[in-house]
Amino acid sequence: MARILVVEDEPDLAFGLEDDLKTEGYEVEIVRDGVTASRRARTEAWDPILLDIMLPGRDGFEICRDLRRAEVRTPVIMLTAKTQEAEKVLGLELGADDYITKPFSPRELRARIKAALRRSSAQIPEVYRFGDIEVDFTRAELRRSGAPVEVTSLEFRLMSAFIRNRGRVLSRDQLLEAAWGRDTFVTDRVVDHHIVNLRRKIEARPEEPRYLISVRGMGYRFDG
Fold this sequence. Notes:
The chain has 224 residues and is of the alpha/beta class. It has two domains: 3-122, Rossmann fold; 127-222, Winged helix-like DNA-binding domain superfamily/Winged helix DNA-binding domain (Arc Repressor Mutant, subunit A), CATH 1.10.10.10. Helix content is 42%, strand content 21%. It has eight helices and twelve strands. The strands form three sheets. A five-stranded parallel β-sheet has the order 2-1-3-4-5, with helices on both faces. A four-stranded antiparallel β-sheet has the order 6-7-8-9, with helices on one face. The protein has a three-stranded antiparallel β-sheet with strand order 10-12-11. Strand 6 and strand 7 (133-136) form a beta hairpin. The longest helix has 17 residues, at 106-122. The radius of gyration is 19 Å and the shape is elongated.
């Protein structure tokens, strides 16, 4: 399930977007000010971000610029009431992937979201390599120095979630949803146990991990 951060300060529009996108099966969170949006966009894993330009606290241009400077690769679709070409060009130059001008139809927005998700998915190669490790998504296989490594389906789903969110901190709750699914009761210690097992299979020195990094009080980050 794709997670969408909607940054929109108009309550009626925000509610309408949330209702429509949840009906489409997306997980949606609404943020209504620029300061909170900037923080949440950098510390959580999102699939696309729908970003209004005119916001209290910080505007969408500032947020988009700072995300790209921080090397956050999440697709950004800007929501703008501005029709001037210069404003649209500025958004794209600052790193936005697309823009849609208000008022817009829900059907058009859904199509743009799906296109952004397809482009983002295409950026992940079928075989992802780091160090002496290969993660083959087409074969659901992990290899080390060319030799297959036995991994469980849970471990492979965890590895996939880390790769798709490389450089981002993933909380235990996010890892639970990615590997076990929603509404599954699993303790944090179970997540940690699987991370330890995964480290043994991909790290040269599991006790001093280079790729699966613990971020105290927050979760784990994949630097691969």
